[in-house]
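Changelog note: in this version the structure field was regenerated for every chain. One regenerated record is shown below for reference.
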Amino acid sequence: MLTRTIAAVLTLCASGTLAYAAGDVEFFSSSDVGTSMPSPVDALDAALGERPVRHAELVDYAKALADASPRVTYSSYGRTHEGRELFYLTVTSEENHRRLEAIREANLDLADPRRLDADADVDALINDQPAIDRGICP
């Protein structure tokens, strides 16, 4: 049952991601994302879902996204047992990129109240934090 649930969630996530990348879904229509970002189709030289994506292609595409925008940073944090690079992308405003360490510290404070002073303004700390999504790429 758990396997079916996980498979269903991954399928929904993948279908939403693929629809967005293919241009079928318009998210944040009022935002200005520009056209300088490389599309997955251009980077992979194949239509999405046409063939499996190799790990090296995924790494190259993630690095291309980071190179194309000051809102994206690429970070490597280790290797798999097969020697493949593990990485994550940080996608946020340029202002938040400049204060990533402060955001990290505030998250640690909120996660462990023992780190806070007794007179700390917790509401202000919470309101100053951007939304954080630790999306996992299978």
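Spot check on this record: Confidence is low (pLDDT under 50) at residues 1-22. Helices lie at 2-21, 40-44, 55-68, 94-98, 100-111, 122-127.
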